[in-house]
Amino acid sequence: MKKLFLVLFCVSLPIFLMLFSYRIALFFTSLDANQEDTVNYLQNQEELSLNYTAAEVSHLEDVKSVMGITDYLFYFSLLIVTLILTASRKDQEQIKRLLFYGGITTVIVLGMILLFSLTAFDLAFTLFHNLFFPQGNWTFPSDSLLIRTFPLGFFMGMSYKIFLLSLGLGMGILVIGKINKEKCAD
């Protein structure tokens, strides 16, 4: 059971940390009025007041669906991480293993994603959109309202914030696991 918990934790922790970092990065990013209006729409907080084209609105509806799925995935990964830590609370050795290997897994996964994003952001951006919007309604002319509202630089900045924050959190968890693991060895 301990090995199963370890594997589930190592899979769930990077997902949780990335989605947690996404929420934090979005919360602390300064948005202009058009971006804020659109983000509020995507989060079901208000109706869309901008004059987007039908194709842009269709894409935003798809984005809203993906954001809903990420909400479920965020809470599911949080539940898995919490349940495993709670179930292991009386076994300090297991907690240390979970934190140590969960941290290592997170750092490795996020390091690879960050490296890929830094060296080939356009390709990563395209792969992301092909994965989540396979119907192809995510390309727009450079002068479209959606592209002017959310230029590529916005996504690059958000991606770097998300991955760097996730990587920092993963490294913090790794350090905590390593320090506690060394204390037990003493």
Description:
The chain is 81% helix and 0% strand. It is built from 7 helices and no strands. Helix 1 packs across helix 3 (54-87) and helix 1 packs across helix 4 (92-119). With 186 residues, it is mostly helical. The mean pLDDT is 91. The longest helix has 34 residues, at 54-87. It has helices at 2-28, 33-42, 54-87, 92-119, 121-132, 145-149, 152-185. The two termini are 27 Å apart. The protein has one domain.
Strand content: under 5%
The helix/strand class is mainly alpha
Any low-confidence stretches, pLDDT <50, length ≥5? none
Total discrete domains? 1
Radius of gyration: 19 Å
Helical residue percent band: over 70%
Compute the average pLDDT.
Answer: 91
Determine the N-to-C terminus distance: 27 Å
- What letter string, H or E per element, gives the SSE order? HHHHHHH
Give short descriptive properties of this protein.
7 helices; mainly alpha; 186 residues
Short recap of the structure:
The chain has 186 residues and is an all-alpha fold. It contains seven helices and no strands.
Topology:
Elements: H1 2-28, H2 33-42, H3 54-87, H4 92-119, H5 121-132, H6 145-149, H7 152-185
Helix pairs in contact: 1-3, 1-4, 1-7, 4-5, 4-7
